[in-house]
Specification:
single chain; alpha+beta; Ribosomal Protein S5, domain 2; Alpha-Beta Plaits; 2 domains; eight-stranded mixed β-sheet; binds ligand DP6
Length: 357
């Protein structure tokens, strides 16, 4: 499939006004996307669990306008007008306007909020961009006919143009983004659902330990760019293809040992890429390392399949089976929360992706 597939046939903007609400979750990558080419094309395929509780709730009110030369919108975040975000939305609208012919016909009032604290160090671009894309696609669906598959694929396609990882927040329980030889229908343009999860992963838990809630010193966008001249980039991209094979096998067979090995290796490789780029940087904090050591010790002594992953920051995602919840919780409260800022953590688990309200 090429980008032409997502160009809409022309249609009348028959609706004068209305309002759409969409909720979209964040996701956590198991095989990481790190490195991209022009037009938000990933340098390697990735797979993530879709989350459930950490989400953005976005409303899009639209009314027809007569001046069709420019985009027109107001943006509010958690009740307040946020001019700082307007540039991002303007860029997003520019990127997606070839695919949504109605964009200049309406004035939009966009109101968004997150269920997680915005100063938590959790990247909100995935949930925010997929929620906004969901609203826009729901409007397109009201203006023209779209099958459910076309709706989901195009919502993922648009989300990707907002933020790469956002394209994996559309459906659940897990999504694969990026062309991969052994994944039929996989594409660099949008994410596809991976639903062969073994029972061992049903309602899998993700507790996010908030180690550092501050602004990151290096944004993901800059980090991706640093993969361009990275001495290990080609091997890393090749490895991600192989690790995706292994991860799919672990997820479908219920092999928790394999899952732990590849999940943790991917997390450390991501941070290894950061530490070996030029300029080099480090997003882990001393408490991130203390937590990792605690997890390794706990796994050995308690025989619970608890593992970790990291995104581009210092926070630690704890991944574990639903059935071990109570035991792991004791460990979190008694030991791991002591490494968190103000002892804070967020409880989440695998979810099903965006919903239109
Ligand atoms: C480390 O999707 O935030 O979380 O495409 O520039 O918006 P942009 O980057 P972004 O990068 C996410 C990187 C990651 C790994 C992942 O989610 O796969």
């Amino acid at each position: 499939m090429t980008v032409d597939h997502f160009l809409s046939k022309s249609y009348d903007c028959s609706l004068d006004e209305g309002k759409i609400i969409c909720e979209a979750p964040s996701n956590i990558a198991l095989v990481k996307y790190w490195g991209k080419f022009a037009n938000q094309m990933p340098a390697n395929p990735s797979i993530s669990f879709t989350l459930n509780n950490c989400k953005s709730i976005t409303s899009l009110a639209f009314e027809k306008k007569s001046n069709l030369t420019d985009f027109s919108f107001d943006f509010y975040f958690e009740g307040e007008k946020k001019p700082a975000f307007e540039g991002k939305i303007q860029t997003f609208f520019n990127r997606i306007s070839p695919y949504l012919p109605f964009l200049k016909n309406y004035h939009f009032t966009i109101k968004s909020e997150n269920t997680f604290p915005h100063s938590s160090g959790i990247a909100s671009s995935a949930s925010a961009m997929s929620a906004l894309s969901g609203c826009l696609m729901q409007l397109e669906r009201q203006l023209t006919n779209l099958s459910e598959t076309d709706f989901l694929n195009k919502t993922s396609f648009l989300s990707r143009l907002g933020s790469g990882s956002a394209c994996r927040s559309i459906a659940g329980p897990a999504m694969i983004w990026g062309q991969h030889a052994n994944t039929p229908h996989s594409s660099d343009l949008y994410a596809v659902t991976f639903d062969h999860l073994h029972d061992n992963f049903q309602n899998f838990q993700d507790t996010i330990l908030l180690v550092d809630k501050g602004e990151k010193q290096v944004s993901s966008t800059v980090g991706h760019e640093l993969m361009n001249n990275h001495p290990f980039a080609q091997n890393r991209f090749k490895q991600a293809h192989q690790n995706l094979d292994e991860m799919k096998l672990a997820l479908s067979s219920g092999d928790l040992e394999k899952f732990i090995h590849f999940t943790e290796s991917e997390a450390l490789t991501l941070h290894g890429m950061m530490m070996t780029s030029s300029p080099y940087f480090m997003l882990m904090k001393p408490n991130t390392l203390s937590i990792i050591n605690e997890i390794w010790h706990y796994r050995q002594t308690e025989n619970v399949p608890l593992s970790f992953t990291l995104d581009a920051g210092a926070n630690v995602h704890l991944l574990y089976p639903d059935k071990d919840k109570n035991k792991v919780f004791e460990f979190i409260i008694n030991r791991l929360s002591l490494y968190c800022q103000n002892n804070q953590y967020i409880c989440d688990h695998i979810g099903q992706g965006l919903t239109i309200k």
